Amino acid sequence: MDSLIYLYGLIPTEEAIKQQLPSNKGFDGKGHMYTLALGKATAVVCDLDAKEYSEESIQEQINNNMEWLQEKAFHHHETVMMLSKMYTIVPLKFCTLFKNQASLENAVQTKEADLIDTFASIHGNEEWNLKIYCDDQLLKEQVSESNPAIEAKREEINQLSKGKQFFAKKKLDKLIESELEEEKNRISENIHGHLSEIALKGNIKKTWSNDVTGRKDEMTWNSVYLIPAADVENFLRQIQQYEKDMKGMGWQFEATGPWPAYHFSNFS
Fold it and tell me: What's the predicted TM-score (pTM) here?
C-alpha cells in the first residue's frame, strides 16, 4: 500500500528521547501516531493511504463533507494540544502531508537551523489570544458627548440656517462614526501596547465579523501574545482589571489559551 506521511508537528529530539509518545490513533482512526527522528528535530506523524488521502480526495471532503471536516479538524487540534502539553512543539497546519519519509526529512533538514532557533524562542512560553469587543452604540453616545471635534461641529451647525442644518447634520453623523472608529482603535492599541510589555511578542490579527462570532457587539481587536509561563498570571490579571474598569463603558475582553505556538513558529 502506497502511503503518505501526515505531519502534526516538530519537537526537539532531546525532548522526544526523554518522554515517550502516547499510543494514540492517527488521522485515519486506524493506524497509530509515531515519531521520526530527523537530526535535532523529531517529527510526530502517522501514515495515510495515498489514494484515500490524495490532495484531490481531501479537497473533495473539505468542500462537500462538513461532518468529516469537523471530525478531522478536531482530531488534529486535540492532538496538537496534547503534544503541546508534553513537548516544545512547532505545530503544523491541518492536513500537512508529505509523499514519503525522504521528502519530509529533506524539508526538516533544510530548515534545521531555523527550527532550532524556533524551539529556543517558544520553549517555556505560552501563546494566548485576546479578543476585545465593544458595544458601539454605548461608546458612540460617550464619544458624541465628549469629543471636542464633534462639539465644535455642533456649535458650527447651530449657527446655520434651518435648511443648511439638515445636510450639516448628515455630515455630523459621518464624523461621529469616524471618531467612534478612531476611539476604538486608540483604546485597543493602548491596551495592546501595555500587554505587549508583559509579553515577549505580540501580533495583531484580523477581527471577525458578527456572522462569525455570533455576538451582537463588534469585535474591535484581535491579537496573540507569546508570554513567559511565569508571567501569564500577571497578563491575565491585567486583562481582568481592564474588564472591571471598562465593562460599564461597553467593553468586554475574551482571553483564551494557552495554545500551541501557531503564530510564533513557522515551518512551510
Answer: 0.83
